[in-house]
Amino acid sequence: MSDVNQESQQTVAVQAPLHQFSVPLSATRRAARLARLLAAEQLGAWGLPLDPARLIVAELAANAVLHGRVPGRSFRLALTVTVQGVLRIEVTDTRGDVLPVREAGVAGAAESGYGLLLVEELADRWGVRSGPVPCKTVWAELDPDRLRPARLDAARLDAARLDPARLDPARADPARPSAHVAPEPGNT
Fold first, then answer.
1. Is 3 a residue whose pLDDT tops 90?
2. What are the backbone dihedrals phi and psi of residue 78, each rounded to the nearest 5 degrees, phi first?
3. Given this model, what pLDDT does residue 102 score?
4. Is 129 left (phi over 0), alpha (psi -120 to 50) or beta?
5. How many Cα neighbours within 13 Å face the side chain of 49?
6. What is the DSSP annotation of 39-50?
7. Which of 28, 56, 25, 24 is nearest to 123 (CA)?
8. In terms of C-beta density within 10 A (0-12 exposed, 13-18 middle, 19 or more buried), how is residue 160 classed?
9. Collapsing DSSP states into helix, strand and coil, what is residue 55?
10. pLDDT tens for residues 111-167?
11. How confident is the model at residue 64 (pLDDT cuts 50, 70, 90)?
12. Looking at the DSSP assignment, which residues form a beta bridge with residue 91?
């Protein structure tokens, strides 16, 4: 009996996500912007690069607000990083009766309709899952090779907080001596 319990615990551990974040947001343009900002903050906390995930979140959240809005109902943003390193972005809205359609192109000089084409180009996979009624979830996945952590190490980031010129010399304040420049001999 103990062998069965150990096996089921190992199975659960393999299937459990490495990181998970979920938040309900009001179906407004301001909340669509907030979804993008929250996603950027969470990705940064996990040590993942912001793009292209931030762009995908922006498009899916904007679609939920523009096409999936039901007055008085919210949408949900969910970010998950699997043990295999896949980032899954999900946006759930309450218009399960209105499903997005994969289009080969947008006709004419349309001002809208490019969002899912952008998602298709940026994501490794995307799709739609119906339910629970009355909801639908539009999801996109980014494989680990697209999610390499930022190259800056903690010591360099700490130094940059004290002196931004260490990361970008163009931002140096000429009136403030840089912390990484040694003083001239005799001027100490």
1. no
2. -135, 135
3. 65
4. beta
5. 16
6. HHHHHHHTT---
7. 56
8. middle
9. helix
10. 556 778 899 999 999 999 998 889 999 999 999 987 765 444 444 444 444 544 444
11. very high
12. 77, 138
